[in-house]
C-alpha cells in the first residue's frame, strides 16, 4: 500500500462519528417536521393535504415525502408522538387515584381532555387506526386494558354479590375502551358552542357511571331530581 492510499483513507472512527451526527440530525429534523405538521393540522383540519401541511410548515412537500414517504407515513409518525402523550396522561391519571371508581373517572377525563385540546389532530392520527400497525397504539391499549382490569377487579371484589368474581371482567376492559372512544368521538364532533354539549369533566363522570352502574345510573339520577 503506497503513502497516497494511506493518506486518503479515513479512520473508521471518523466515518462512524459523521454517520452518528447525520442520524442525530435526521432525528431532530424529523421531530421538527412532526411538530410543525401537528400545528398545521390543528389549524387546517384533519383533511389537510401534504402540500398544505408543507406550506404551513414553510418547507416543500418533497421534504415531507423524503422523511415520511407519504401522508399515511406522516400520520403514523405523528400518531406515535400523539398517542404516547395520550398514554402518559391517561396512565398517570389512573395511577394517581386510590379508589377504582375515581381511577376510572380520571382515566376517562384525561382521555377526553387530551383529545379536546386538538380535535383536528386527534381525528387526523386516529382516522385509520383499524388498519394501522402502530406499536405505540397497541402498547397503549394493552397497558390500559391491564390497568383497567386490575382496578376494576378491586371494585368487583369490594362490591360483589354472591357468586360474582373478577372473572366476569374478562371482556369488560375492551368493551369499555370501545365505548369511551365511540362516545368521545361523537362528543368531539359536536360544536363547542352547542349548549347541549357537556364539558369533558361532566361527560367523563357520565361515562364512568355508565360503565360502573349501567343505565340504572340515569334512572336513579332522574328519581332524585323528581323528588
From TrEMBL:
Is DNA-binding included in the keywords of this UniProt record? yes
Origin species, per record, is Neomicrococcus aestuarii
Under Pfam families, the record lists: TetR_N
Q: Which UniProt keywords apply?
A: DNA-binding
One GO MF annotation is: transcription cis-regulatory region binding
Q: What is this protein called?
A: AcrR family transcriptional regulator
Q: Where is the composition biased (Low complexity)?
A: 1-15
- DNA-binding region residue numbers: 49-68
From the UniProt entry, list the residue stretches annotated as the region Disordered.
Answer: 1-22
Which residues does the UniProt record annotate as the domain HTH tetR-type?
27-86
In terms of domain of life, where is this protein from?
Bacteria
Q: Which residues form a coiled coil?
A: none
Amino acid at each position: 500500500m503506497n503513502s497516497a492510499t494511506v493518506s486518503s483513507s479515513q479512520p473508521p472512527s471518523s466515518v462512524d462519528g459523521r454517520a452518528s451526527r447525520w442520524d442525530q440530525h435526521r432525528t431532530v429534523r424529523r421531530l421538527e417536521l412532526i411538530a410543525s405538521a401537528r400545528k398545521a393540522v390543528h389549524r387546517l383540519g384533519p383533511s389537510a393535504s401534504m402540500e398544505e401541511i408543507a406550506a404551513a410548515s414553510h418547507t416543500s412537500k418533497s421534504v415531507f415525502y423524503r422523511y415520511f414517504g407519504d401522508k399515511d407515513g406522516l400520520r403514523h409518525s405523528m400518531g406515535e408522538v400523539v398517542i404516547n402523550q395520550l398514554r402518559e396522561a391517561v396512565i398517570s391519571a389512573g395511577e394517581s387515584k386510590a379508589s377504582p371508581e375515581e381511577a376510572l373517572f380520571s382515566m376517562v377525563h384525561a382521555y377526553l381532555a387530551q383529545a379536546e385540546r386538538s380535535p383536528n389532530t386527534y381525528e387526523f392520527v386516529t382516522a385509520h387506526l383499524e388498519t394501522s400497525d402502530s406499536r405505540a397504539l397497541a402498547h397503549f391499549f394493552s397497558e390500559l386494558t391491564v390497568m383497567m382490569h386490575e382496578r376494576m377487579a378491586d371494585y368487583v371484589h369490594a362490591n360483589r354479590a354472591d357468586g360474582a368474581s373478577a372473572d366476569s371482567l374478562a371482556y369488560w376492559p375492551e368493551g369499555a375502551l370501545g365505548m369511551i372512544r365511540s362516545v368521545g368521538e361523537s362528543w368531539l364532533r359536536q360544536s363547542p358552542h352547542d349548549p347541549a354539549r357537556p364539558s369533558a369533566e361532566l361527560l367523563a363522570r357520565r361515562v364512568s357511571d355508565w360503565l360502573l352502574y349501567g343505565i340504572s345510573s340515569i334512572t336513579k339520577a332522574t328519581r332524585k331530581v323528581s323528588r
